[in-house]
Write a structure and sequence with these properties.
Chain lengths: 296, 336
């Protein structure tokens, strides 16, 4: 609303867009607001920057002064990690696991949410309640039998062994977020499609999918980050170093090189890059998606 | 021909929901069954095809394991072959009498309460600040969300390096003249749980801020404008308008926070490891479950712990939904 009003009147009064409330806002808040925001950001990013810059130091630098900038900057830790085959194998495993989980969750989630949002049938409330109850079953509760189930399926030490449970456990969040999105598509569109002899599935394919892209991206990112960071499930399922995903790799690396702090920090900071990149690319969508979910 | 038929049933079915808002919310059950003669085989097939895969996955890998946990929990079982040594409720008796479990339960309770007390006010405060017209707001939002996106393993590894006695935190304290405050953050049993709370707050407060900001942006600007016209001060506006209207968001966040705190595992297990966590006073029900169950090879016992953990979470969740969330979720399934 405000954005539209501003952009239309923008060219004329470029210097005075703060027409309505600015007197108050600029007078009272600004410096305080910016200061508080800066403090917040410093607190949030400090530890992250410590991990990243620590990777550019040597162990003797870290021992003599744990909290300082690299002097001189050392790149050996990062190059060693980046040239090790272990690291890249784990990146590969994590990528496969996260991508497969994301794609499957989104596909299954959109289909089920569409049913919940647009079909009237007996048992619809029960189905919604089933998935909503899934929010109460974090993987912690089911982990031991899940391990036994995966073992019986012969999938221990394989990536499908973690992908399948990850899909199932990501479904509730996905569906809870997507249903309001799909419900928000106006009935008139569906009626118009019906008049045009477009079947329900055709409507799903041609109208619903394109219109639900924001919600799909939100849930996709959440599923990707969840799978990328997942720790407990791989801890149970993957015991073979060759199948380790990055979180297990970080831990194994940290205990293997416990005296080599700088190298651990380098390994750690490299392994957080993909989730961060993925998130910052789609940040707007995530916040938008959460808004939709909160509204729902 | 068949598509023609599909369109007809569609049109019939579409009439029904259109009428229903008029019938009012009170009588929900009768109208659907009457007003829906149009559910033909075709729609049933679509429903089954579209929702079937998700339901099967969910039942197989979520519901089934949870039920199996309840079954295994009645056995003393080392995880090889089918369980045979039925011990009834013995595992549960042992759990409830084990002082290690009682401690873990207490730690969980503390973490639940302190998470709400720490993160809630901080997050509301920062959301209020950022809800004003701030330059670079979207960048700020990305940056405060960063800790939430980073894996627990990385957070745990990084913080445990920083919090060692000769680590960065103590070094910073010394360099700014607060050397008296340096401590053994991780191993001192009086401090460890506060250290854990600090790390938890750091990791999860960004999520709360984003959620609250999203909620605030749903509040129509006209309301605060009207209040300003009526002469309300900034704080009056926030206190009387923003916070009450943010209620649903706060209640949902609190729900997620409580459930998350009850299930807390990764960070504790990574930072304190399986043995130290109970002596440092930060063990949780989930770390107890993994230590005493899988790591000790007692799969039956571990499953019983999982059941206890689940029942506690579920009771709390149901009570919360019944008494706190009810009015928010009433409209959740829009069509009703």
């Amino acid at each position: 609303m405000a954005a539209i009003a501003e952009s239309t009147s923008g060219p004329v009064t470029a210097s005075a867009p703060p027409r309505g409330k600015p007197r108050k806002d600029s007078g009272r808040g600004s410096p305080v607001v910016y200061f508080a925001a800066l403090v917040l950001i410093a607190l949030m990013l400090g530890p992250v920057l410590y991990i990243i810059t620590g990777g550019f130091r040597t162990n003797s630098q870290i021992t003599s002064n744990p909290a300082a900038l690299p002097n001189p900057w050392v790149f050996a830790n990062y190059t060693e990690v980046l040239t090790s085959s272990t690291f890249w194998r784990q990146v590969g495993n994590s990528t496969i696991s996260a991508l497969a989980t994301t794609i499957a969750v989104v596909v299954l989630g959109v289909m089920a949410s569409y049913v919940l949002a647009r079909y009237q049938f007996r048992g619809r409330g029960a189905m919604y309640a089933l998935f909503a109850a899934g929010l109460m079953f974090p993987i912690t509760v089911a982990i031991t039998p899940l391990y036994i189930l995966v073992k019986n399926l012969g999938l221990v030490n394989t990536l499908p062994g973690i992908i399948l449970p990850q899909i199932a456990f990501a479904l509730p969040t996905t569906i809870i977020i997507l249903v309001p999105f799909l419900q928000a598509i106006p009935k008139e569109l569906e009626e118009a499609a019906a008049i045009d002899r477009c079947s329900r599935l055709g409507f799903f394919w041609r109208m619903v999918l394109p219109l639900s892209v924001p919600g799909v991206i939100t849930t996709g990112i959440l599923a990707f980050i969840g799978a990328w960071n997942s720790y407990l499930l791989p801890l149970f399922i993957l015991n073979d170093q060759d199948t380790f995903t990055l979180p297990l790799g970080v831990q194994a690396f940290a205990s293997q090189y416990s005296v080599d702090t700088a190298k651990v920090l380098a390994f750690t900071s490299l392994s957080m890059i993909p989730a961060l990149v993925f998130f910052s690319l789609f940040e707007r969508r995530i916040v938008g998606g959460l808004t939709g979910a909160v509204k729902g | 021909m068949s598509s023609n038929f599909g369109a007809e049933t569609l049109a019939v079915a579409e009439n029904a929901p259109g009428n229903r808002p008029g019938t009012g919310g009170g009588a929900q059950a009768p109208p659907p069954s009457r007003s829906r003669p149009g559910i033909g085989w075709r729609q049933r097939l679509e429903i089954a095809l579209l929702s079937g895969p998700a339901i099967i996955m969910f039942l197989a890998f979520v519901i089934f394991p949870v039920l199996m946990a309840a079954y295994y929990g009645f056995y003393r079982w080392k995880g090889f072959g089918p369980p045979t040594n039925f011990v009834g409720l013995q595992n549960y008796v042992t759990i409830l009498q084990d002082s290690l479990f009682q401690e873990a339960l207490w730690h969980n309770a503390v973490i639940v309460v302190l998470s709400l007390v720490f993160q809630g006010p901080i997050a509301i405060g920062f959301a209020l600040l950022l809800n004003q017209k701030v330059r670079g707001q979207s960048l700020i939002r990305v940056l405060i969300f960063v800790p939430y996106v980073i894996a627990e393993v990385i957070v745990g590894t990084g913080w445990s390096l920083m919090l060692q006695t000769n680590g960065a935190v103590n070094a910073v304290l010394r360099s700014i003249g607060l050397g008296a405050l340096t401590s053994d953050w991780l191993a001192n049993p009086d401090l460890a749980i506060w250290t854990l709370m600090l790390i938890l707050t750091w990791k999860y407060v960004g999520f709360a801020v984003i959620l609250f900001l999203a909620g605030m942006q749903n509040i129509p600007e006209e309301l605060s404008e009207a209040a300003a016209v009526d002469g309300a001060s900034y704080w009056q506006t926030q206190w009387r308008i923003t916070l009450p209207l943010l209620g649903p968001t706060i209640r949902i966040w609190a729900f997620l926070s409580i459930i998350g705190a009850l299930q807390l595992f990764d960070l504790v297990y990574i930072i304190w490891g399986q043995y130290v966590s109970s002596t440092a006073g930060v063990s949780t029900m989930a770390t107890y479950m993994v230590t005493e169950g899988r790591n000790a090879g007692n799969y039956g016992y571990g499953n019983a712990v999982a059941v206890v953990l689940f029942l506690i979470s579920m009771v709390i969740a149901l009570v919360y939904q019944r008494f706190v969330l009810r009015r928010d979720t009433q409209g959740a399934l829009g069509g009703r």
